[in-house]
Write a structure and sequence with these properties.
This protein is of the alpha+beta class. The protein is built from two helices and eight strands. The chain is globular and about 40 Å long.
Length: about 160
């Protein structure tokens, strides 16, 4: 499995190529990248606290574990509809190290490339903002998701997509 790490202005971008995720589409962010007091708009998710920072090994394991879980969740979302299937390689990820119930957890905030592309068209100055602050969009359905990963057990929780409204 190939692991690539790039340091960009204090941020660590990591990704395993073999998982299906693209290296340039992931970043480990500090919880303070989320505006104070803000919660996830249209899906359940933890409050973010500045606790620990996942390293490249944790992210590699997370992505390997998350890939089949996300693929299955996306398949279930499109099984009873005429909507096209989505590829996990088209998702971006923001990874936050948090504590939940005394355990170190990585919270994954995922969003589809169409969000980044439309942001770049409408507000070019914000095109790269996903690298420094949390993407928090209301609605959007399967284009946006959140999931927790426990690095100790290497288990991925339930994928929560945004509301469709």
């Amino acid at each position: 499995m190939m692991l690539r790490t790039v340091v960009l202005t204090g941020l660590v971008l990591v990704q395993t190529v073999a998982s299906g995720f693209k290296p340039e589409r992931a970043v480990v962010l500090r919880p303070d990248a989320m505006p104070a007091g803000q919660r996830w708009c249209s899906r359940p998710g933890p409050a973010l606290s500045d606790d620990w920072r996942p390293d490249a090994d944790v992210i590699r394991d997370l992505e390997a574990a998350m890939a089949p879980v996300l693929r299955l969740a996306l398949e279930k979302e499109t099984a009873d509809s005429s909507r096209p299937a989505l590829d996990i390689a088209d998702y971006y990820g923001q990874y936050f190290g948090i504590r939940a119930g005394g355990r170190r957890i990585v919270y994954v905030n995922g969003f589809h490339r169409t969000h980044v592309e439309s942001t770049a068209r409408v507000r070019p100055e914000l095109a790269a903002s996903w690298k420094t602050r949390a993407v928090n969009v209301c609605d959007g359905g399967r284009l946006f998701f959140g999931v927790e990963y426990d690095p100790e057990t290497r288990k991925v929780g339930v994928v929560h997509f945004n509301g469709a409204g």
